[in-house]
Amino acid sequence: MRRAAWALLSLTGLDLAGREIARQSLLSLVLGHAPSLAVTVAVGVIAAAAAIAVSRGRRIAGLVLAACFTIGLALQIHLGARLQSDGFYYFAYLRSLAFDRDVDLTEVAEARTLSERLHQHAAPENLPEGAGNDHQREGRAARNADAG
Prior knowledge:
By secondary structure, the chain is mainly α. It has helices at residues 2-21, 26-31, 37-55, 61-79, 87-100, 106-118, 134-147.
């Protein structure tokens, strides 16, 4: 039972990660269509719960963490969250010290701003509510007014 639960949790985790990284469900390649996020997460959580019930409290931490991982991935996909860190700046400072022999990040900041501007041109329907530039918000408001 535990092995089957781990297999299902691994499959759901890989599918959700594939949706986030490759923008395609791995299960859609096998089933012909992508199951909803809720169904995918439910399968993984139910498998973990069944294995935990059978385990009687022994060695359940991994199953709990794997179930939480699948829930977290699904929430990240659903909410459109991006994981960010300050690792970019560690690299920028190191590069500036090694190559430029200073800590002037002006050109790095300009490149980063340009990179962030590219996201302004994303399709409005792919952005969370309230996100995007003025034109995208106005277009979304006009589309919603026409629908209502």
